[in-house]
Amino acid sequence: MINSFFLQNSVLTPNAASLEGAVWIDLDNPTPQEGAAVEAAVACEIPTRDEMKEIEISSRLYLYNNAVYMTAILPANSDSGDPVMGPVSFVLTPTHLVTIRYHAPRVFTAFPPRAIATKLEMQGADSVLMALLEAVIDRQADILERAAIEIDVQSRSVFLPAKRGKNPDYQAVLEKIGQMGNLNSNIRDSLLTLDRLITYFGQILTKHDANSDLRERVKTLASDVKSLADHANFVGSKITFLLDATLGLINIQQNGIIKIFSVVSVIFLPPTLISSAYGMNFANMPELGWEHGYPYALGLMVTCAVLPYLFFKYKKWL
Predict the structure, then answer these.
(1) Which long-range contacts link 104-112 to residues 24+ away (Cβ below 8 Å)?
(2) Which of 58, 73, 127, 314 is at a distance of 20 to 30 A from 272, taking alpha carbons?
(3) What pLDDT, in 10s, does the model give residues 122-179?
(4) Residue 35 CB: number of other CB atoms within 10 A?
(5) What distance in Å separates the CA atoms of residue 116 and residue 57, rounded to the nearest whole number?
């Protein structure tokens, strides 16, 4: 699918699927025919899906036939806890910006309406790319903030169970920690590719002697990416701590259960021994003739069970 936009009074304006006068062309899961049409309109090659998946930096960031090719890994469907990571390519020419993607990062549907509503001024394709990258970084920051809040919620449920009146569901907590860890790891990988992309874009702007405003915005954007990377590392350390603490609490709970079984076994061991002795039915057992032999045996078993219990309570083992 082709989504195109042109600049009207320096404001981004939808142009449906028309390529005439378009400044930004967004290719969403394009067909070969759509790719060929865009190549003819912008006079440059469009990378294929396989080319976008290349992991070498030289395959993701390069200059070819007066067009700049940049690829980053962006998340989609991150709010569901099962993010989809995929490459997004940015092809920048002197007159056009072409984005190619085969998944649906939210920023590509949220950025155009917001830019139109706020009347965000843009002067050309490089200005559109700058605004789009800023929106991408804002989206990454939102995802990290949500992950940090979710980790705080899980921390309270684990470390303050008394306020909830019951023990936490450790299986659900571990599943949530796993989801947040996976999301945070994906965001860190995405930020790494964005850091390289923004650094390369800044070099291109400097090489082409772009206006000082764009160069300053690139520097600010690079600083934001590094700050987000540090925050992602901090969130990752919190996730690791919470995982270790949760596993430790599970071990404590299991040890408590095993201790109860051990104590019960010790308490009932003497009565079991006594009942076994009196259950052998030898012919010459003097207790068989006692009038109160049965109550005596029961009392002896109860006494042998109570004494270990009182001893454990005295030692504060229970």
Answers:
(1) 104/28, 104/76, 104/77, 105/74, 105/75, 105/76, 105/136, 105/139, 106/76, 106/78, 106/139, 107/74, 107/132, 107/135, 107/136, 107/139, 108/26, 108/28, 110/135, 110/139, 111/135, 112/5, 112/12, 112/14
(2) 314
(3) 888 888 899 999 999 999 998 888 888 888 888 887 877 655 556 677 888 888 888 8
(4) 19
(5) 34
